[in-house]
Design goal:
Blueprint lengths: L1 H48 L10 H33 L9 H49 L3 H58 L1 H37 L1
Helix pairs in contact: 1-2, 1-3, 2-3
Keywords: ER-Golgi transport, Golgi apparatus, Membrane, Protein transport, Receptor, Transmembrane, Transmembrane helix, Transport
GO cellular component, one term: Golgi membrane
Pfam family, one: V-SNARE_C
């Protein structure tokens, strides 16, 4: 019985490794397809700048069919690998296998990590491919509109170019005006803040002056007494000086 369960586990591991190898090859090819699609679109875009050819930008039909076919194949392989991982998980949880078999759990976790990495890589590459295709479809539509417009009369093209330039000038002027207004508003806010601060300081000083009138009165009395003492002292010094002079000359 143990040998049978061991063979079953080994068969599952072989299936998982085989599917992982196939997925690795498929994902490499899938990534190359996306890269070649991007490079070819860039070359066609540069070529269309200097030619009036109205043929499609890309040989999109064949590449799109190849993309769809490879995507379906990879999704099928991922589904099969998921099923094998589920069977391996059921095997590790079965009654005939010790629940604390660290080697089996480690192997299962490694296969699950590989499956997760392949799934993430597939979805990332697929999303990049779809984004490039949508962008190229949009750019192709824009280029066609531009080419169709360029086939019009030269006078209309020239007039449109002048209108576009004037429109750019107006947009630049609006941007400069908005920046000037923003600077003025910021300056106004700073001045308003400073005025409020000064008003607050003035109000506090008035409050202190009104709160301590006795202190002001006392200070005034002290100043008057100092002046009186200064006058008295000055008078005494003057009298003493006169007396000394009279004594000296006699």
């Amino acid at each position: 019985m143990a040998a049978g369960t061991s063979n079953y586990w080994e068969d599952l591991r072989k299936q998982a490794r085989q599917l992982e190898n196939e997925l690795d090859l498929k994902l490499v090819s899938f990534s190359k397809l996306c890269t070649s699609y991007s490079h070819s679109s860039a070359r066609d875009g540069r070529r269309d700048r200097y030619s009036s050819d109205t043929t499609p930008l890309l040989n999109g039909s064949s590449q799109d069919r190849m993309f769809e076919t490879m995507a379906i194949e990879i999704e099928q392989l991922l589904a099969k690998l998921t099923e094998v991982n589920d069977k391996m998980a059921e095997y590790t949880n079965s009654a005939g296998v010790p629940s604390l078999n660290a080697a089996l759990m480690h192997t299962l976790q490694r296969h699950r990590d590989i499956l997760q990495d392949y799934t993430h890589e597939f979805h990332k590459t697929k999303a990049n491919f779809m984004a490039i295709r949508e962008r190229e479809n949009l750019m192709g539509s824009v280029r066609k509109d531009i080419e169709s417009y360029k086939t019009g009369s030269g006078v209309n093209n020239r007039r449109t170019e002048l209108f576009l330039k004037e429109h750019d000038h107006l947009r630049n002027s609006d941007r400069l005006i908005e920046e000037t207004i923003s600077i003025a508003m910021a300056t106004k806010e700073n001045m308003t803040s400073q005025r409020g601060m000064l008003k607050s300081i003035h109000s506090k000083m008035n409050t202190l002056a009104n709160r301590f009138p006795a202190v002001n009165s006392l200070i005034q009395r002290i100043n008057l007494r100092k002046r009186r003492d200064s006058l008295i002292l000055g008078g005494i010094i003057g009298v003493c000086t006169i007396l000394l002079l009279l004594y000296a000359f006699h």
